[in-house]
Specification:
Blueprint: H1 8-18, E1 25-28, H2 35-42, E2 48-53, H3 70-81, E3 90-95, H4 101-113, E4 118-123, H5 126-133, E5 142-145, H6 151-157, H7 161-167, H8 176-192, H9 196-205, H10 208-224, H11 226-229, H12 235-247, H13 264-276, E6 280-286, E7 297-306, H14 309-315, H15 335-348, E8 358-363, E9 370-378, E10 381-387, H16 396-405, E11 410-414, E12 419-421, E13 424-428, H17 435-439
Parallel strand pairs: 1-4, 1-5, 2-3, 3-4, 6-8, 10-11, 11-13
Antiparallel strand pairs: 6-7, 8-9, 9-10, 12-13
Length: 447
């Protein structure tokens, strides 16, 4: 195992492993987000480790072809690996499990027949395999969702964790040098993104070009999977919808957009497949009349976010020579990029045992249309979050929503330092995942 960067997911894995009783754990997420590396890191806490990769060794799937008698399957795995699977001391890892739907079905029987054996499975395109599995084992399997590196994880990976710590301790404005340093690190993060291979390449070389090469390899690999999605949806159609989603970042997604060149029904089907593969993240229009947010939506209006900011810029054709080395004004005139970054950070900030949903607010009226980028639950109420790419900008939509929905608190995410404009709290873009803690403390009013 090469260099490994500790992440938030490690804490969840270790807590699962240490629990007195547990369900088999299924890691879900897009390809190359670090699922396998995280399980191998967890294996260091066990006396024995057996790893099965159904993609590299498809013949192992034959062990699951007959009756799902777990003791017999475990004995066969012991013979193949030469490692004894002891309850409480061994970790069994079933990787690329989507290649063996019967093994997905078997997870529930591990829970029933070997409840004290630590079992972790991982895979991508899992939603496509669930139907073939003939049963998912609801209530007998614990899901854990894996995302690309968050900004905090990136900062720690590049050895700058002290700046994150300095910005997240104490109250009041962040020391200017710390603030500017974190904005520069945010610039770097947007180029590198959060895919582990790209982060490692950047850490080891200090070169955006090396990270870009990894990103291009990842994109080729992800697109190669399109042929596996469904025979009735051609790969070319999926490629068109992906390109259209990237082009429409920050806007309501129009399925029949001219750049896709597809009928609405065709584009919708392809977009749903990309969501199931966890390459696109849906943001749904919400009326924001109360909690829960998911109970008050307009399903006809959605935005779609590509799942990694670095891959987004790579796929968008970003010329690294035009990026500007380390300048803190990275988001100026790039409102869609700022909105994408914030949405992905909000998605990653919650419990990895839950699949988070994102919402926004839109009001369509003659002469007074308005839109607020994100909505989050906070202190039993709806919290609107408006994203600004620079250090200034009007907040007409945010004020209109607060007045219409009778809200007394809102957030503006921008390149500004911590401050407040009356009931609107200003949080630096890079700290948006810390908003629950920050809102609990007093904010200095902006001058």
């Amino acid at each position: 195992m090469g260099k490994y960067f500790r992440r938030k997911i490690d804490e969840s894995l270790e807590a699962w492993a240490a629990a007195p009783s547990r369900k088999p754990l299924l890691l879900r997420g897009a390809r190359q987000t670090g699922k396998t590396s995280a399980v191998r890191a967890l294996a260091r806490h066990f006396q024995a480790f057996v790893e099965v990769n159904f993609e590299r060794t498809p013949e192992v799937g034959g062990l699951f072809a007959g009756d799902l008698d777990i003791p017999s399957i475990c004995k066969a795995l012991e013979l193949r690996s030469g490692v004894r699977l002891e309850d409480g001391k061994s970790l069994l890892f079933l990787d690329e499990i989507q290649e063996c739907p019967r093994a997905i079905t078997a997870l529930r029987y591990f829970y029933e027949q070997r409840p004290d054996l630590h079992v972790v499975a991982a895979g991508s395109l899992l939603e496509f395999a669930f139907g073939a599995a003939g049963g998912f084992g609801v209530g007998r399997i614990r899901n854990l969702f894996v995302h690309p590196f968050s900004f905090r994880e990136f900062v720690e990976a590049v050895g700058q964790g002290r700046f994150w710590e300095a910005a997240t301790t104490g109250t009041g404005p962040i020391e200017p040098f710390v603030h500017e340093t974190l904005l520069r690190l945010l610039h770097d993060y947007c180029v590198v993104g959060g895919m582990p291979a790209a982060v490692l390449a950047y850490v080891e070389s200090g070169s955006f070009l090396e990270a870009r090469r990894e990103q291009m390899d990842i994109l080729v690999s992800l697109k190669a999977d399109f042929d596996k999605y469904r025979a009735r949806v051609p790969a070319e159609r999926i490629l068109r919808v992906l390109a259209s989603a990237i082009e429409q970042t920050g806007r309501k997604f129009v399925y029949a957009a001219p750049e896709a060149g597809l009928a609405s029904r065709q584009a919708k089907e392809a977009a749903q497949l990309l969501e199931q593969a966890r390459l696109l993240v849906r943001v749904t229009d919400c009326h924001a009349n109360g909690l829960p947010l998911g109970g008050d939506i307009d399903p006809r209006r959605n935005k779609l976010l590509f799942f990694d900011v670095g891959l987004y810029l790579c796929e968008s054709g970003l010329d690294l020579s035009d990026w500007g080395a380390g300048m803190p004004d990275v988001f100026v005139n790039r409102g869609a990029l700022a909105e994408l970054f914030v949405g992905l950070e909000l998605q990653k900030m919650g419990s990895p045992f839950e699949a988070p949903a994102l919402y926004y607010w839109h009001r369509e009226a003659r002469g007074s249309s308005a839109e607020v980028d994100y909505l989050m639950p906070y202190a039993g109420r709806v919290l609107p979050i408006e994203v600004k790419s620079g250090k200034s900008g009007a907040m007409r939509s945010l004020h209109l929503m607060m007045e219409e929905k009778h809200l007394s608190l809102a957030v503006r995410a921008s390149q500004e330092n911590l401050s407040a404009y009356g009931p609107i709290r200003v949080i630096p873009l890079y700290l948006i995942s810390e908003f629950p803690r920050l809102l609990a403390a007093p904010f200095p009013q902006a001058q």
